[in-house]
């Protein structure tokens, strides 16, 4: 199990790094332009993925991340988003590398205050699926605007040279 979650965390970190490297050279206005997606714009979707990761990392650590809504903006610039994304990606890799019991139960409350208990493996599976889901939305928004992005798929990562 460790290798699976560690691989997912490392793949996530590599995809984030490649996309953010490309995005960092583009005007923020392009990423804040309304696209009709669930979270509106590319930046809003990138921000939401980061927010959700912070929420789950906080729940796993037993230190809840405070937020008002799932669309709350936690970064005001692409530079800050890149910095925070890099930090969260590193935290996910460190968690997956150090964890000894992916079956351990995590007790947490959702945003409505309802209490839950779930195995860490289910939470991490959800977290990585959530990232993939929203990266698919970003990919579509980029495609529509003719913004070329690197392949964000797991299979492409496993095939080629990566950092």
In short:
By secondary structure, the protein is mostly helical. 61% of the residues lie in helices and 6% in strands.
What's the structural blueprint in terms of helices and strands?
Elements: H1 2-24, H2 28-32, H3 42-61, H4 78-98, E1 105-109, E2 115-119, H5 120-144, H6 154-159
Antiparallel strand pairs: 1-2
Can you describe this structure?
This protein has six helices and two strands, in the order ααααββαα. With 163 residues, it is mainly alpha-helical. The protein has one domain (2-159): Four Helix Bundle (Hemerythrin (Met), subunit A) (Up-down Bundle), CATH 1.20.120. The chain has a two-stranded antiparallel ribbon. 24% of the residues are buried.
Class based on secondary structure composition and strand pairing: mainly alpha
Describe the global form. Answer: globular
Class in CATH? Mainly Alpha
Number of domains: 1
Supply the CATH architecture. Answer: Up-down Bundle
Features:
globular; 163 residues; 6 helices; mainly alpha; Four Helix Bundle (Hemerythrin (Met), subunit A)
């Amino acid at each position: 199990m460790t290798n699976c979650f560690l691989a997912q965390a490392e793949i996530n970190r590599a995809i984030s790094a490649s996309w953010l490297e490309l995005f960092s050279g583009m005007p923020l206005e392009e990423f804040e332009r309304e696209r009709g997606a669930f979270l509106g714009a590319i930046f809003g979707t990138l921000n939401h993925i980061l927010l959700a990761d912070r929420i789950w990392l906080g729940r796993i650590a037993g230190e809840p991340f405070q937020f008002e809504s799932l669309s709350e903006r936690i970064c005001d610039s692409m530079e800050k988003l890149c910095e925070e994304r890099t930090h969260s990606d590193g935290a996910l890799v460190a968690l997956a590398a150090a964890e000894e019991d992916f079956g351990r139960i995590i007790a947490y409350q959702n945003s409505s205050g309802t209490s839950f208990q779930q195995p860490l493996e289910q939470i991490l599976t959800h977290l990585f699926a959530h990232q993939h889901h929203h990266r698919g939305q970003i990919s579509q928004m980029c495609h529509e605007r003719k913004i070329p992005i690197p392949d964000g798929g797991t299979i492409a990562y496993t095939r080629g040279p990566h950092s």
